[in-house]
Predict the structure.
Amino acid sequence: MFHNHRSGPSQNPVALHPSGPGYNMAHQPPYNPTQVKGPMPPGPGLYNSGPYQPVPLVGSYQAPPGQPMLHRPSMGPPQPMTPPQSASPGPGLRMPPAQATPPPPVSANSYYQHPPSWQYGAPPPIGAPPSMAVPQHGPVANHVTSSPSPAPPQLSVGYNAAPPAIHNTMQPLGPPATLQGYTQPGSAPPMNSMVAPQSYQPGMRVPIAPPPTMRPTPPPTGTPNATPPPPLVPKTDGHIQTPGNGAPFPNSLDHLETGHTMTGPAPPPGPPARHMGQSYPALPPGYQNTSAPPNASPMHHPMQTPSQPYSHAPQQYQQTSAGPAQLSPSLAGLSLQSQTPEALRVVNLLQERNLLPPGPISPPTPCLPQDLQKINCHPEVFRSTLTSIPQTQSLLNKAKLPLGLLLHPFKDLTQLPVVTSSTIVRCRSCRTYINPFVSFLDQRRWKCNLCYRVNDVPEEFMYNPVSRSYGEPHKRPEVQNATIEFIAPSEYMLRPPQPAVYLFVLDVSHNAVETGYLDVVCQSLLENINSLPGDSRTKIGFITFDSTIHFYNLQEGLSQPQMLIVSDIEDIFLPTPDSLLVNLDECTEMVQDLLKSLPHMFGKTMETQSALGPALQAAFKLLSPTGGRVSVFQTQLPNLGVGSLKSREDPNQRASAKDIQHLSPATDFYKKLALDCSGQQVAVDLFLLSSQYCDLASLGCISRYSAGSVYYYPSYHQQHNPAQVECFQKDLKRYLTRKIGFEAVMRIRCTKGLSIHTFHGNFFVRSTDLLSLPNVNPDAGFAVQMSIEENLVDMQVVSFQAALLYTSSKGERRIRVHTLCLPVVNSLSDIFAGADVQAITGLLASMAVDRSVTASLSDARDAMTNASIDSLTSYRTSVLTIQQPGLLAPACLRLFPLYILALLKQKAFRTGTSTKLDDRVFAMCQLKYQPLAYVMLMIHPALYRVDDLTDEGALNISERTIPQPRVQQLSVEKLSREGAFLMDAGSVIYLWIGRNCNPNFLTQVLGVPSYPAVPQNMTMLPELDTAESQRTRAFIGWLREQRPFFPILHVVRDESPLKASFMQNMIEDRTESALSYYEFLLHIQQQVSK
Amino acid sequence: MAFTFAAFCYMLALLLTAALIFFAIWHIIAFDELKTDYKNPIDQCNTLNPLVLPEYLIHVFFCVMFLCVAEWLTLGPNMPLLAYHVWRYMSRPVMSGPGLYDPTTIMNADILAYCQKEGWCKLAFYLLSFFYYLYGMIYVLVSS
């Protein structure tokens, strides 16, 4: 790089949306004149602006008081650093021949064929032997791989997703241009990323999900040269034509999400604007638009013009591209400025009743220059509670908002760039992986964005396999994608990658056989035995237990599985250590035999005791040489041998108890065993199928510290509870077939000055920033509390990097790296403007779970209430300048009290209502372990009216029309007897039918003639061939697709036993033991105005 | 000048306090190692936990000795620490073995900071009492 990486793309519209040759032309002047002979050592001037190259950009619109805005010119394109660029056009031509690889298919596009005009491609490698360098670093040694079997059609899907086509598909979703002023600012970026041109897909991974069907597939132009893996194939459509340009890459989000998922958060068009714009008539005029407090006013750029909706960005940039390069950052700033007033608009919570947006709530966008923001990690993967990081801890304390990160690091991504490289470029002092937010001082050196050390760019990194050009380190996929996966070389292995090993530990006591779960487990395993993730080394084993432990010898050559019973549970040993875990490929038949006979083997058992502890010890012994996954199915309280537990719950105290006891484990046996497991890379997943108290608080430790997952099916029974059985089946299928990573560790690094305070989730914390995860699964979420140890003065942005090193089921060592970049602010109003209410709620929930275990439940409840009181008090006293009556909150936090109230009424934290201890503990586990999106549904379910679904504003996904009804408030007042309402509570969906429900709905959707004919335990909608039925089922199906687990549908009518649990979710209403929303607001207001 | 039982108590306390000072330093170093990522929390807790009870018992032991020789003035400052030790051990996490430190929670920044602060405070206390016992011993030897 001849100029700073930062200044390049940001100053340079080309980087944002490459499109015509005009770019090349337009930008030539700024670069060429700045030729300097030889790579100059970075002068002091460079250091001043260098480390924080992005700084001026941020500063240009943030302009914290006292922040000189003069920086900006200094970092413009004419960097004095430019090494010889004069560069004959030759080098660009040299490469293809030198590599003996077929010319990039891109050659078809004319722009790429003008390397001479594009400075990056042109210069001869400085200091490198001109002719040798390129071949050496050809794609063999260092290239971006394609997915294992990059079928050309798939590739073309990724590559060719031409922006125009996507535009078309997405258009209905995008906020219409007229919304600008009031559009939820946060809603735009997803759109943006969707709309942005699809970039190269070097190693397009298609992990689990099929290629997104909604992506248009233009003719696969890139495929002709299928001989070498086409990973390097740059795009073939108009947008991608400047591959060396790096421009196409910024929209890393594109790779991450299917269009489908992306559409989720996008609000339907229209309504947001109406809602926002019109529903606050009561506000004093002073607050309506210009509510940005005075100290935020510097944000208003003099050049303020109506900001463009993001979907129009490409055009916008194309137009401006001819102008001075500085224009683009200011425009980037402009579009962000409009967000501040909206996020900080004062809302009087006591007056505003309809606070819920009509669709899903999208996370706020960090106040970053647009090019950085576009490249930033997707909020579903990596999210911060405060999208603007306070400069000092005291400022953070003043804001009274928690600072933390929420991660979903192993989320299933349909598209993920994968890089194979013999050297992975990392900072030499802090080991940060090179990422889009580092700055390139010159072509040979880059500055770490976490510790600010200046590192050398390795020779290998100079070659860009995507564009097949040399000397563009900043165009490498590592520097263009905030989420990327590396295939790790052997330095990253402490031992040879382990094979996939699965061990099933099944409870076969009388109680277990009675529930009939064995049938389901064996059946699911039989069906999915070939889709278990793994390769030819995959191993499988079975252990069953009641009062004794039964092993199964599945060795090849036996005529049938041989059961070995060990009755000495005090000192457990493995009868035949070699043949209990067998290779799945070689012994499939034997395994199938066993699975077929297992359900009947224990049909007559009268054994009621359960020696879970010894069985787990046996499992640990069996797996400790390799590591792997143990799936434990348990149906009762373990009562024999080590780890036996006693019932601690007093059912009479469920509702009345002032404080809930026994939330912490009764014994540390399971914790210690889990730590042993963790050390040997064994994870334990617990399936609890029980109707009685099982002491999940103690048992759960086995999964919690070994990074397993917990599934709980209360009152599971084959006959009596078919809904639960279906749910179990679906979950099991997902569980067996989902992606898995073995012997994983995750390290979270952050910019110097920030430090990690606490982790939440299932793992073992091995050092201050390292989590040990024997297994990692795509449904695991993590939360991290952060603190600010040193003042972040002089920093404009901070970065967080989560690196997950794991062994894939195919035995590859891989590193998945996510990097998030956030601006630093120094005023309270900016902090409030960047608050992400959902992330805050999720983090507070995790913190409250910890608090209720270490202190008490009432403590945790108080802490949550205080959190909302404190932050609103701080807002009132420190940010608001004009005091007025009422409970005032910034618009971005308007849902905060509602979510806190929802948490207080959540199963995990509620008091006064009869809640089983296990249910409560399970809810707590979920709050800590589930990714934020599902946690939010658990906390605040979504209510839709479904008897009048229309296709207006519907989504169109793979030729299905999915209606998008409005989200209703959770209040009985919103229910009407004439309607039917669907409540999506995450793991369960209720369909409430009003007594006088539209007969049309009853007949067309439910297939019953009248209301009394609605069956009591209806859990499925009949497949009727009517438009209404199709719409309803499409909508429910769409809701279900959005999560990895299977929510059961319950049709609820007035007499249903489930009506109570439906009504309990009506959190805005008063119950005997809890305040209504309005009362809660009054309580908060009283405390705030004290 | 005579070698009384009280003087013997002070001498013994002097030696034992020296040992306690080493314990405190050991703790401080151990937690620092945890904070700087040098050690695995499981190993570190395994080395620290067996030391907790001996430290408490040593302290109890010379408290009892001072009680026997009715050195109330010396006993006074030691009582709060004794009470703190009792409270600390009562409120320890659920553990099957002896000790205080749980490898799963020790890496929490609050707990780590608390343990470090505790180490420094104890070090200061033991150092002060070391010199006090030295003074006490000489005083007893001289005055009797």
